[in-house]
## 1
Amino acid sequence: MSNRTFTMIKPDATQNGHTGGILAMINEAGFRIVAMKTTQLSAEKAGEFYAVHKERPFYGELVAFMSRGPITAAILEKSNAVEDFRKLIGATNPAQADEGTIRKKYATSIGENAVHGSDSDENAAVEGAFFFSKLEQF
Ligand code: ATP
Ligand code: MG
């Protein structure tokens, strides 16, 4: 069990003005922000980030969506961070997300689902390093 995970507030939530609301939920759930930046992914960088989904039918749609506007990327710290953050964001499909989760409140569809959360300690480390150097992590 590691104490760090990685998140992105996706372009849909950014465009809809939900960045502050999502950060408040993250804060209230007890996560500490280790690093944070707002940036926009090129299609190439979005494709690289989600390369694990390359063979999936929604890959092209996912890359276009993730590069269409700004995102906020962050490394978060808390005990049991990966698992607890996946609980906080809720199911991939917001129709199946529990009450009180970020996706229940802010996601609009299975594709445009407001936030990303790492699915393992190993991926949390890789994804955090994708956006932040050691000097940018506090
Ligand atoms: P994320 O990795 O972004 O936290 P997740 O782990 O809940 O989401 P994954 O299976 O890793 O879900 O899918 C990555 C992303 O691809 C989803 O968050 C969503 O934006 C998109 N996606 C997944 N399934 C579909 C689908 N059936 N149709 C369209 N987009 C999808
Ligand atoms: Mg995933």
Note: The beta strands are 4-9, 32-39, 71-77, 115-117.
## 2
Amino acid sequence: MKQKSGLTNNLSRRGFIKTVSAVGAATLLAPFSSHVLAAGTINKGNAFVVPPLAPAQRNGQQVSFNLQINSSQHQFFRGVNTPTLGINQSYLGPVLRAKRGDTVTINVRNGLNEVATLHWHGMTLPAKMDGGPHQAIQPNQTWQSRFQIRQEAGTTWYHSHTMHQTGRQVYHGLAGLFIIDDDGSDQLGLPNDYGIDDIPCTLQDRRFNRDGSLNYLSRMPDRMMGMQGSTVLVNGVVTPTLEAKRTVLRLRLHNGSNARTYQLAFSDNRPFYVIANDCGFLERPLQTDSIRLAAAERIEILLDVSDKKQITLKSITSESNSGMPMMGMMGMMGMMSSQELDIMLIDARQAQPSQRKIPMSLRQSSLVLNPKKAVTTRKFELEMGMMGRGGMMGGGMMRGGMMRRGGSRDAGSGGMFRINGKSMDINRIDFAVKRNSTEIWEISNTSPMAHPFHVHNVQFRILDRNGIAPNAIEAGLKDVVLVHAGEVVRIIMAFPEYSDPKIPYMYHCHILEHEDQGMMGQFVVV
Ligand code: C2O
Ligand code: CU
Ligand code: CU
């Protein structure tokens, strides 16, 4: 099999020329290129790295973790130091792991000289423990978050949620996984040897400058489409090679990208089995040979490699531009994520026979969400400046801050990115919901591109897309739903017992540049 290093990917000459002709060489921060590398640095595939488990102090069901946010340097390319942000390490953070029923205490120290936050994405918890923009941690301060885990086993994650800085901070490394186990989750016969046959994979796309630094928001479409790059990292490693140790692998695939939607498939189109999505198990493994994974989504899959071949996990096309007439232009400009990308290689030649089989069934979730119980249906309209009420393209884009360099600011109701006509204002609570109540949210997307919509504090189910029930793979518990251009998606959720009349939770587009520019709102639970 032909192996490409991330660098060669990154340097694809065709991509480079396309880009130059589209934006003009003068404004271009050239992508990181080979001439800064000494001979021998183009290697035959980087080794896969299993993210370390965060050390936990456990006392019965009390579990505590210490996280330290740092600025750092990380070698994505051998011999080249890239300035990064990290949590207990140089890029990304360790995997937190705890069990349903545990009360976790997480001490987060901010060692940066800027404000930071860490939000527990996918977690049900009191608003003041959520780690959103209202729990800003000042430099050299420690924030303590404590909550009981009351939800089912699943692969959740954590990341920076700093007002207007989420995109940049996550892009440079402020993210990690948080795995929840429960009493039944180890009884399902699934691969569960961490790092051996139960393998977390955080997928991120990045763009590098000539000097090895991360390139963020340098091109016109970066703010509009969200930040995308053609170098793919898995757990912070450029297109790694995973030497499979067992013939049945459980991959916890997490899209930790700022914006990109992947359409995942294996190079030989082999089938695989989806066993869980964002917040828990499906009722049974579902066989497929390709699956879409939007920003912030997670799926767990079982992969049979007993034929001991070498295969590549790829993104075959991106769906992020589907249904976007005007985005065809962006695709031609080489700005869009329509290209095929190699994500990681899996070399199963040395894999040992696994005791595990693909189970016939998993289990039913105990979280019942009954549409008849819904007390209200709320409507959310996702809008972008050039197509929504905000007026025509140029005006909306300019006002919304697309042309501005550095952090964007609140643009009020005239902003480029809006929900129900309003851009995020940290001093405005958009609505209140009642604790223990069930609601239906109807999200319609009147913009020309897809947006992954996320709600804090709940696990929801998708009721329908344009009136049609979702496919079975999307039927599990979720906290992110991709809403395509022109689509109306209905989700149902039950708000837990936690309430706080003052401190809100967020709902937003998980394209982090959209969130930072205003496609976000706040609700309280009373
Ligand atoms: Cu993944 Cu508001 O967050
Ligand atoms: Cu979240
Ligand atoms: Cu968006």
Note: Residues 10-35+193-347 form a domain with the Immunoglobulin-like fold (CATH 2.60.40.420).
